[in-house]
């Protein structure tokens, strides 16, 4: 499972008793705090029985199933259980039939007494709760529990503060429109907005290295590398894969890395190593239509950048009111480490680079 994970929850069996399995074929899934791991069959054979149950907490080395190479002793296990289930109901029905006359006689006498008090009429101001039949109770997954714990720890530990700005996306959108076909033809991947914001974040982190640092006890750890985490929403929960050494990558390398990590995150094949570390996070709520938000820091990092949806709004340009594609951006940071001055300068650098990408070429 990895050094950082000691146990997991048996989420579900992918096979049934009596099914034939081959070597390395997945038979069950284990949910951990970070990823979902497949349990593969070490041998080819027929599943004889399950030792563990769905929902059990298991550790490395625990048995979850028994596989028979010959397939003997499999078929008769399930029918014995079914037969006992079939025999039991008739006996219960007979008992119920005998008991029914006795049960029905008592309510007849109590009906006048039971119908006299009118509780609903006496409580017009009381809160009317919906019946329990209209509610569903579903246990939280380990990933959702872990995300909830980390976010609450972030609120309890950090002095969270958020600063905002807005970005004119005209030039970045024009750059994408002008070179998207040539970019795909040469690099085999589409040119998106995320690579532009990653490059802008790298430039801003180099200008304000305190945003890339972290508090450790009474010390400040400055990182001389930039590993940017990209928040990805999946059906099972939020995962944050990491782009390693983003300061050494160009636009194409960033886009390829993001596409690879996003595919792995969505199909559940992403590894723990691909999510470990990270010195700064970018969260793009704009893909879901979010206009503005205050993102929460991903511990043990010190800041997170929130991107949002692009909306055409009237702006004053050269004394004239013209429509512009605008995006709100937000930076949530740990105020214990980062002052407002550094945070505002950081966000201003993001704005300047996105609005004029030529700054990256000239390093100005």
From TrEMBL:
Pfam families, sorted: 2-oxoacid_dh (PF00198), Biotin_lipoyl (PF00364)
Function statement: The 2-oxoglutarate dehydrogenase complex catalyzes the overall conversion of 2-oxoglutarate to succinyl-CoA and CO(2). It contains multiple copies of three enzymatic components: 2-oxoglutarate dehydrogenase (E1), dihydrolipoamide succinyltransferase (E2) and lipoamide dehydrogenase (E3).
Quaternary data: Forms a 24-polypeptide structural core with octahedral symmetry.
Superkingdom as given in the UniProt entry: Eukaryota
Matches recorded under Gene3D superfamilies: 2.40.50.100, Chloramphenicol acetyltransferase-like domain
Gene Ontology BP annotations: tricarboxylic acid cycle
Pathway annotation from the record: Amino-acid degradation; L-lysine degradation via saccharopine pathway; glutaryl-CoA from L-lysine: step 6/6
Location relative to the cell: Mitochondrion
Protein source organism: Solanum commersonii (Commerson's wild potato)
Sequence similarity: Belongs to the 2-oxoacid dehydrogenase family.
Name assigned to this protein: dihydrolipoyllysine-residue succinyltransferase
Catalyzed chemical reaction(s): N(6)-[(R)-dihydrolipoyl]-L-lysyl-[protein] + succinyl-CoA = N(6)-[(R)-S(8)-succinyldihydrolipoyl]-L-lysyl-[protein] + CoA
CDD domains hit by this protein: lipoyl_domain (cd06849)
PANTHER family associated with the record: DIHYDROLIPOYLLYSINE-RESIDUE SUCCINYLTRANSFERASE COMPONENT OF 2-OXOGLUTARATE DEHYDROGENASE COMPLEX, MITOCHONDRIAL (PTHR43416:SF5), DIHYDROLIPOYLLYSINE-RESIDUE SUCCINYLTRANSFERASE COMPONENT OF 2-OXOGLUTARATE DEHYDROGENASE COMPLEX, MITOCHONDRIAL-RELATED (PTHR43416)
Region (Disordered): 70-140
